[in-house]
């Protein structure tokens, strides 16, 4: 398996404060990897160390096989970077910003011009290309920053909270761009504190207080945290909790409008649900409805940090 | 080429920043005109040096009344007649007043004594002002003296020297140009790097394949292109508006000014690399300017300073610039006659240019 990012034992201390604590992480080539966690979790610090913008206290970092910080110059050639804070020149126009960074990457003349036009087209910024970056709306600034990150056709995109502070429709549109790029083969590492966005990722890592507390595909994570899929079954009438002992792995039981609402955990709902329903039916209970619940990653995260589960197998 | 990309970017940004433009164009004019109004048109005080060989009570009384004379001011103190004469000859002061040894004792005995006044005769209005002022001083002194000691008297004797015919305005021109060429470029460029750090643009910049040298020298070159205007403005104002006579070659004055300007830019860049934010950088630029002014040798001749202050002056680039510019402007020297100052300025410039890229780290912590 080829890894775009391989990090092990990564640690960063600011004085006595441990911002990143012995972090291990692997991202495969071609993946969209989502780095999730609340503010202050240590996502930005991790990314900065990965990009050689900050020295690690301990640990090894390899990006496409290049050791960081020693081989930072190689990393820069293949990486597109979008910082958490808008960090382009507000007193330069959209075009001038792209032109400047393009030149730094050694592009010039017609090549540079064509590449910029292509990106302006792709990111829908053609009409504002003469506008100063400082006068752009939040969504446009974000697209411009993506454009600059893409100017040299990087293999790896590192995006630190690219969607922070913009409206949900714009966030969704931004993810469209990311998915498009990913289809063309770009590996993407993206951080966010919007848990709902993480559903767009191939795999995610949950970070809290400097530690990676869980890692996997969104589906895997939910299953691991709750021990499987969750199905909501509604039964007619009042059913005692004890009645279902041994029949189903019950997570919750509640009453609603005279009916009984069960939340049942199944290892794999698609395979086990029919058998469960047959068992319940066999007990003479009347099933009104049964459907898998879509657990949000938000719930997964809360479940994890409230400490009910210390650490999920990595 | 990456360096040129930085140069172009910086020039576009400068062009769009009204504050910088005002600073580049207006500060030199304002500083020059303030000095022009203050010291031009024969107004202002005439500078004298005092050589006090007596150092007894009555000599201080004379000195005191010279200081109280409105038309002159004591710019320097010398230790010997020769030193005093040199100061006048070099146009550093317009006259030197020598109070002889035994001045107080003689007068107390009721004898008469002489005060030597070495006057620069090259500008007649100035020499006659000095004569009148000294007459007034001695007359007043005698009036008081006669009350206590009978028969004593002070006689004035004059010694004429032909100085380089330096007007007051001309005497200050090297300093004014030095002030402009240090203050404007240093404070302008001092925010160049820390502004990028403060605004976060540094983080994006160093994620591109740019080197420390591209960043530093790209910015230096851009600011050099912008502030070369200051060098031209100050020289033009001096020659055409102040009407100073440039006795040496103008091109040599330009070369020495350019050298000093580059040093100032390098200094500002070093400040920028070391500062945490723009405020700190601005303060550092001003703070460094104060000793440069004090030890420039223009407000007070360096020969008159204490030995330790003299060492400091010898480490002040402004001192070398002012003295080099003076030599070209007043003595009519060419570059080959001021090789020592040239050398000092070259070393200064080279040091500044080299240290900024060495100190800069391409990291955000
Ligand atoms: N330069 C720094 N000096 C001291 N503490 C820092 C520094 N940078 C970040 N931190 C601290 O490290 C923690 C992690 O920050 P960060 O990596 O920015 O988190 P996130 O990006 O997940 O919001 C925070 O508590 C933050 O205050
Ligand atoms: Mg962050």
Provide key terms for this protein:
heterodimer, A: 314 residues, Rossmann fold, Alpha-Beta Plaits, 2 domains, six-stranded mixed sheet, four-stranded antiparallel sheet, 14 strands, elongated, disordered C terminus, B: 365 residues, alpha/beta, 15 helices, binds adenosine-5'-diphosphate, binds magnesium ion
Brief account:
The complex is a heterodimer of chains A (314) and B (365). With 314 residues, chain A is α/β, with parallel strands linked by helices.
Number of domains as seen in the coordinates of chain A: 2
Low-confidence stretches of chain A: 308-314
Q: Sum up the overall morphology of chain A in one term.
A: elongated
Low-confidence stretches of chain B: none
Number of helices of chain B: 15
Strand sequence of the main sheet of chain A, in spatial order? 6-7-8-3-9-10
Largest sheet of chain A: 6 strands, mixed
CATH superfamily of the largest domain in chain A: P-loop containing nucleotide triphosphate hydrolases
Number of strands of chain B: 5
Distance separating the two termini of chain A: 17 Å
* CA distance, first residue to last residue of chain B: 28 Å
Lateral arrangement of strands in the main beta sheet of chain B: 2-1-3-4-5
> Which percent band covers the strand fraction of chain B?
5-15%
Distinct small-molecule ligands in the complex:
adenosine-5'-diphosphate, magnesium ion
CATH architecture of the largest domain in chain A: 3-Layer(aba) Sandwich
Number of strands of chain A: 14
CATH T-level topology of the largest domain in chain A: Rossmann fold
Give the fraction of residues assigned to helices of chain B. 55-70%
Quaternary status:
heterodimer
Q: Write down the CATH class of the largest domain in chain A.
A: Alpha Beta
Q: Could you say which structural class the secondary elements and strand pairing of chain B correspond to?
A: alpha/beta
């Amino acid at each position: 398996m080829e890894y775009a990012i391989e990090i092990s034992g990564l640690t960063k201390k600011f004085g006595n404060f441990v911002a990143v604590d012995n972090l291990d992480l692997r991202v495969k080539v071609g993946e969209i990897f989502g780095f999730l966690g609340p503010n202050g979790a240590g996502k930005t610090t991790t990314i900065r160390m990965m990009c050689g913008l900050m020295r690690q206290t301990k640990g090894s970092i390899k990006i496409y096989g290049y050791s960081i910080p020693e081989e930072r110059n190689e990393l820069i050639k293949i990486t597109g970077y979008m910082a958490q804070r808008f960090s382009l020149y507000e007193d330069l126009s959209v075009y001038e910003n792209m032109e400047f960074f393009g030149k730094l990457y050694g592009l010039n003349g017609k090549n540079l011009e064509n590449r910029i036009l292509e990106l302006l087209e792709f990111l829908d910024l053609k009409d504002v290309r003469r506008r100063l970056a400082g006068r752009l709306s939040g969504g446009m600034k974000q697209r411009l920053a993506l454009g600059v990150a893409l100017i040299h056709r990087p293999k790896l995109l590192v995006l630190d909270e690219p969607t922070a502070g913009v409206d949900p429709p714009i966030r969704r549109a931004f993810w469209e761009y990311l998915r498009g790029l990913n289809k063309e083969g770009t590996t993407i590492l993206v951080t966010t504190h919007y848990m709902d966005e993480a559903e767009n990722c191939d795999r995610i890592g949950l970070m809290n207080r400097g530690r990676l507390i869980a890692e996997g595909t969104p589906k895997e994570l939910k299953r691991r945290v709750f021990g499987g899929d969750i199905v909501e079954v509604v039964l007619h009438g009042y059913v005692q909790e004890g009645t279902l002992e041994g029949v189903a792995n019950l997570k919750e039981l509640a009453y609603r409008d005279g009916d009984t609402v069960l939340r049942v955990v199944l290892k794999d709902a698609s395979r086990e649900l029919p058998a469960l329903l047959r068992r319940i039916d066999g007990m003479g209970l009347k099933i009104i409805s049964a459907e898998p619940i879509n657990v949000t990653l938000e719930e997964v995260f809360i479940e994890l940090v409230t400490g009910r589960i210390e650490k999920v197998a990595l | 080429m990456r360096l040129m990309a930085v140069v172009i970017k910086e020039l576009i940004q400068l062009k769009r920043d009204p504050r910088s433009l005002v600073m580049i164009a207006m500060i030199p004019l304002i500083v020059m005109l303030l000095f022009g109004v203050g010291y031009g048109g024969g107004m202002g005080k005439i500078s004298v040096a005092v050589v006090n060989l007596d150092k007894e009570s009555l000599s201080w009384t004379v000195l005191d009344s010279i200081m109280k004379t409105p038309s002159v001011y004591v710019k320097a103190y010398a230790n010997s007649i020769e030193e005093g004469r040199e100061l006048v000859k070099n146009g550093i002061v317009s006259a030197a007043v020598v109070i002889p040894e035994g001045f107080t004792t003689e007068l107390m005995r009721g004898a008469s004594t002489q005060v030597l006044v070495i006057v620069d005769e090259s500008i007649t209005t100035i020499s006659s002002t000095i004569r009148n002022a000294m007459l007034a001083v001695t007359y007043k002194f005698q009036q008081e003296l006669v009350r206590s000691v009978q028969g004593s008297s002070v006689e004035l004797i004059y010694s004429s020297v032909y100085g380089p015919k330096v007007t007051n305005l001309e005497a200050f021109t090297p300093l004014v140009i030095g002030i402009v060429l240090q203050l404007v470029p240093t404070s302008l460029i001092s925010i160049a790097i820390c502004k990028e750090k403060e605004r976060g643009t540094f983080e994006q910049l160093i994620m591109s394949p740019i080197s420390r040298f591209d960043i530093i020298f790209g910015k230096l070159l851009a600011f050099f292109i912008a502030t070369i205007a200051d060098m031209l403005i100050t020289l033009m104002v001096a020659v055409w508006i102040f009407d100073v006579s440039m006795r040496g070659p103008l091109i040599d004055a330009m070369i020495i000014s350019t050298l000093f300007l580059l040093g100032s830019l390098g200094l500002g860049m070093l400040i920028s690399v070391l500062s945490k934010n723009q405020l700190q950088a601005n303060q550092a630029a001003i703070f460094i300017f104060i000793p440069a002014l004090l030890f420039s040798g223009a407000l007070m001749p360096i020969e008159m300073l204490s030995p330790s202050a003299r060492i400091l002056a010898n480490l002040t680039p402004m001192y070398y610039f002012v003295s080099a510019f003076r030599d070209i402007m007043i003595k009519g020297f060419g570059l080959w006659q001021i090789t020592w100052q040239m050398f000092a300025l070259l070393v200064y410039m080279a040091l500044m240019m080299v240290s900024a890229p060495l100190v800069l780290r391409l990291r955000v912590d």
